[in-house]
Amino acid sequence: MAAFILRRLGQAILVMLTVGLIAFALFRYVGDPVIFMLGQDATPEDRARVTQQLGLDRPFYVQYAGFVERALHGEFGLSLRQVRPVSSLLVERLPATLELSFMAALFALAAGIPMGVYTALRRDSWFSHFLLAVSLIGVSLPTFLIGILLILVFSVQLGWLPSFGRGDTVTVGWWSTGLLTASGLKALILPSITLGLFQMTLIQRLVRSEMLEVLRTEPGSSAIFSAVRGKPCCAIRRAARCRFLPRA
Fold first, then answer.
1. Which end of the chain is more exposed for a tag (fewer CB within 10 A), N or C?
2. Where are the domains of the chain?
3. Whole-angstrom Cα distance, residue 46 to residue 236?
4. 76: helix, coil or strand?
């Protein structure tokens, strides 16, 4: 197990270094970051000064080695657009990122598990076929297109939900959260659905296949599930017990 973990960590480090090298090369040879920061009207003296300050006059391999060394200490340079340290921008946006990830995972679990249970217990109902069609759409459509469609319908056409921003936030210590305000919760709905829809469809299909396997292999499971069809919580609990508890 330890060897597997170490091998995975080594592969992850290699991938990160490779991706970083490619991104650094694109940044270095595609466009001029100095012109991007200063604009077209900057004087040659200003460009030379900023180039020297950023170390862009040094060889490529020296720049990349310096970038890796600073990244190991949590320093990722300056943002070209905002001219601020990237590390401070990451810390500033960390609460919103974690909240969005949590809400997307919560949506995927809260919707995917009941949908998987229902489509397994009522395989021939029209609503079960509808849910399977929805899951197929969720798997097929790219995430960015789902987000655009949701914005078009619920923000542009209906005007029910905001299309950007976090809404009102509340500061609790060093943490800023939008979960404690109505506008903050509304601002999380569309991005949470966008990010969680794909995971929801995977969870739905996984739960459905596992429950069908239980119905097929476990003796007496079909009769038990027939008795709890109107009680989804009981069905989920029974399926988890049948599927995941160790067998003698």
1. C
2. 2-84, 94-155+188-244
3. 66
4. coil
